[in-house]
Amino acid sequence: MATTAQVFNIPARGYSHNPTQDVEILPDLHECQTCHSEITFNPDAPYSEAWTHATAPDTEHQPTIATRCIYCHSHHVTIELHAYHDAITCTRCGGIHGIALGD
Questions:
Q1: Radius of gyration for the alpha carbons in the chain, expressed in angstroms and rounded
Q2: Strands, sheet with 85-90, edge to edge from the N-terminal-most edge strand
């Protein structure tokens, strides 16, 4: 598997910052925020039903996507709200994905 230093060796743009630690990039899997099981996207389904649990359909709740790092795909992130941008900071790789507000 590739590492963050191999893949993200170009300057980050805007409010984002490249990872500060060289870690292995995790598999590109999405996780349900409620039950932490794997969820998948079906592009042919209506948008409200597009995300479903991968193992078995759960009738207890609608799957919601857990926030994750765009660099290493870790779910160990914090969301910070700033005056001009929001930031998703990863504790695993040190990367920051900044999203500008109001531009």
A1: 16
A2: 77-81, 85-90, 96-100
Residue-by-residue pLDDT tens, the chain, 103 positions: 799 899 998 888 889 999 999 999 999 999 988 888 899 998 998 888 888 888 876 567 888 889 999 999 999 999 999 999 999 999 999 999 999 997 5
Distance of CA 18 to the CA centre of its chain: 15
What pTM does this model have? 0.83
Find the farthest-apart pair of alpha carbons in the chain and give their distance in angstroms, rounded. Answer: 44
Neighbours of 39 (CB within 10 A): 21
Give the rounded distance of the alpha carbon of 35 from its chain centre.
16
Q: φ and ψ at 36, to 5 degrees?
A: 65, 20
Beta strands in the chain (DSSP E): 30-31, 38-41, 51-53, 77-81, 85-90, 96-100
